[in-house]
From TrEMBL:
CDD domains: Terpene_cyclase_plant_C1. It holds the Pfam family Terpene_synth_C. Residues 47-218 form the Terpene synthase N-terminal domain. Gene3D superfamilies: Farnesyl Diphosphate Synthase (1.10.600.10), Terpene synthase, N-terminal domain (1.50.10.130). Its cofactor is Mg(2+). Keywords: Magnesium, Metal-binding. One of its GO terms (biological process) is diterpenoid biosynthetic process. This is Myrcene synthase, chloroplastic. InterPro entries: Isoprenoid_synthase_dom_sf, Terpene_cyclase_plant_C1, Terpene_synth_N, Terpene_synth_N_sf, Terpene_synthase-like, Terpene_synthase_metal-bd, Terpenoid_cyclase/PrenylTrfase. Residues 276-410 form the Terpene synthase metal-binding domain. One of its GO terms (molecular function) is terpene synthase activity.
């Protein structure tokens, strides 16, 4: 990166001179001082390409097709089970289990269409009411918090008698986390349920299975969890339940394994792309975290049909992590200003003044964004390049502002 220093001096060893006549050697360094670089001492990447390529899955095989057909058959069996349940609470409980394991849009639409009739059947059943509310609200249906008014006293507080309904309190706790801004009833529900659930755990009087669910919910509410990761926990917990349905359990395990295999295939392809890009090999100062970036993207969109989003977003996440380290720990302020200008101009000819490592960063982002723009234009007929250009420009300007603050001692 830096040239070898050269030295020049006026020392003529061929001419005879006396010591007093001989001029003192004057050594001058023509090399520029190396800019001061910070380091974050990041740990090495734990997921190199050879390890990722060793991940196995049955994707695109006869076995995978057989599993997919088995899933479709099991889904139909489970839907029949829902409608065979005579008690409303049993139906809702089964729907909730499926919600944590699989896609149930058609069932939820049926519930939403019959909400007025269902509301009459719910009466004073807190557990069932909270289940209906959370399932519908969590899937985009418009449900009012007024559904819980029957459980409040004259002061607007939740009735003290509810503290003895552990399953109901747990369901209300989970429902409170799908609140919209300004929904005071659900804000009170969150405070009320959190306090009572913590007291129940501390007393140690709960059934072990129920205590496991309560502790899990208090750690992180369901609405905040990564669904596919939670599905793994729920499968293990569900198979220990006395009311476990073997058809539901089989569907959950089969679906989990098929989707997991799909994720592995996506990660292998992304790892090939990342390795061929060679950024991590040439720029050793930044975080090489492809697998972690992919996992983060799965948390945003876990559904199988969003594979293309996961591919594009994972690439962008890798570039964002790279730029964060360029601006935070490695780039000089002058070079960062030039890089930000190049991104804003969105012109590959604008990188001549950049250091070589920044040229690599720019071209990697520029090429990936244009490739994404081409795919969207081809498939959807939309030109998203201006949006991508603005997004990268806004990000780099924000990073540059932070770098200036650091250099000013803030």
């Amino acid at each position: 990166l830096f040239g070898t220093p050269s030295f020049t001096g006026n020392v003529n060893i061929l001419r005879r001179t006396t010591i007093s006549e001989r001029p003192s050697p004057r050594i001058r360094c023509n090399a520029q001082a190396a800019p001061s670089r910070r380091t974050a001492n990041y740990q090495p990447n734990l997921w190199p390409d050879d390890r990722i390529q060793s991940l196995t899955s049955s994707s695109a095989t006869v076995e995978d097709k057989r599993k997919t057909k088995g899933i479709d058959d099991l889904k139909e069996d489970v839907r029949k089970l829902i409608y065979e349940k005579k008690e409303l609470e049993d139906q809702l409980q089964l729907v909730d289990h499926l919600q944590q394991l699989d896609d149930i849009d058609d069932v939820l639409r049926c519930i939403y269409g019959s909400l007025e009739d269902i509301n009459k059947l719910l009466k004073d059943d807190l557990h069932a009411t909270a289940l209906v509310f959370r399932l519908l609200r969590d899937n985009g249906f418009d449900v009012s918090e007024d559904l819980f008014n029957r459980f409040r006293d004259e002061k607007g507080d939740f009735k003290a008698s509810l503290q003895h309904e552990t399953k109901g309190i747990l369901s209300l706790y989970e429902a409170s986390y799908v609140a919209k801004e300004g929904e005071l009833v659900l804000d009170r529900a969150m405070d009320f349920t959190t306090m009572h659930l913590k007291c129940l755990v501390e007393k140690g009087s709960l059934d072990p299975r129920l205590r496991e669910h309560v502790a899990h919910a208090l750690e992180i509410p369901l609405h905040w969890r990564m669904q596919r990761s939670h599905a793994r926990w729920f499968i293990e917990a569900y198979q220990r339940e006395a009311t476990m349905n073997p058809v539901v359990l089989e569907l959950a395990k089969l679906d989990f394994n098929v989707v997991q295999g799909m994720y592995k295939g996506e990660l292998r392809e992304l790892s090939k792309w990342w390795t061929n890009l060679e950024l991590a090999q040439k720029l050793s100062f930044f975080r090489d975290r492809l697998t972690e970036n992919f996992l983060w993207t799965v948390g945003c969109a876990f559904e199988p049909q969003f594979w293309e989003y996961r591919e594009i977003q994972t690439k962008e996440n890798c570039f964002i992590a790279m730029l964060d380290d360029v601006y935070d720990i490695y780039g000089t302020l002058n070079a960062l200003e030039l890089f930000t200008e190049a991104i804003e101009r969105w012109d590959a000819n604008a990188i001549d003044q950049l250091p070589d490592y920044m040229k690599l960063c720019f071209l990697a982002i520029f090429n990936a964004a244009n490739e994404t723009g081409y795919r969207v234009m081809k498939e959807k007929g939309l030109d998203i390049i201006p949006c991508l250009r603005k997004a990268w420009t806004d990000l780099c300007k924000a990073f540059l502002l932070e770098a200036k603050w650091y250099n000013q001692g803030h």
